[in-house]
Structure formats: C-alpha cells, structure tokens
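pls design
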C-alpha cells in the first residue's frame, strides 16, 4: 500500500523559509523519481521540483535558485527546502511519484500517487 505523508507547511512572511518533508511507505523510494507539485485555489496544478533515482534534480523556472529538493533513501523521505518565499508560492503542496498508471497531471508530468498535501501560506 503506497502512502505519501507531507508535513512542514505553515504560515510564513515573504522572504522567509520553510522545509517540507514527505514520508513515503509501501515502496522502495530509491527506485523511483519523486516530485513536489502544488496547486493554488483557482489555478492549475504545477510541477515544482523533481528528483530522479540517480539524484538528478529538475525545477520549475519559477522556483529555480530558491527551492531545493533532496531525498534520504534510508529514511524513505523527500524534502523541499523553500527559501525566499513569495506570496505567489502560496498553495497546497503535494509529494508525488509515478509507480503505476498516471492519475494526476501537472505541467511537469504525471503521477500515479500523491499525498494529502501540506498548506503553505506566504503572507
């Protein structure tokens, strides 16, 4: 049973930082690419960052230089360090992966599983 549980969201002032965590279970994290996606009310779902099984990372242009994705396979956890936050970063942030057929689509790709999300509010 694949499970992704996000944590670390909250309210932060513009220019501040947050670190999101995603605890994964039910599969071997190290074998799959993991991603963070986000969705703000009334807006499309966006891919934010991804980290592949070989450690390569990709970022959406709107977070490059501010956000860093990382993974700890031993802890089966993926992180998103968010610095210099802006009001437009306000959204529900999800951890996602593709293990089976696509179920969720974003500007950055498609995923089979995602968590319940953690709210990030920059104000």
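designed seq:
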């Amino acid at each position: 049973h694949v499970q992704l549980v996000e944590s670390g969201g909250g309210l932060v002032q513009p220019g501040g930082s947050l670190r999101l965590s995603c605890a994964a279970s039910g599969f071997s994290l190290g074998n799959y690419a993991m991603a963070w996606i986000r969705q703000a009310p009334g807006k499309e779902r966006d891919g934010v960052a991804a980290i592949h099984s070989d450690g390569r990372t990709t970022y959406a242009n709107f977070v490059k230089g501010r956000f860093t994705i990382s993974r700890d396979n031993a802890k089966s956890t993926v992180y998103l360090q968010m610095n210099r936050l802006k009001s437009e970063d306000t959204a529900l942030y999800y951890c996602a992966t593709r293990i089976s057929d696509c179920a969720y689509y974003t500007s950055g790709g498609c995923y089979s599983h995602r968590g319940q999300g953690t709210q990030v509010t920059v104000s």
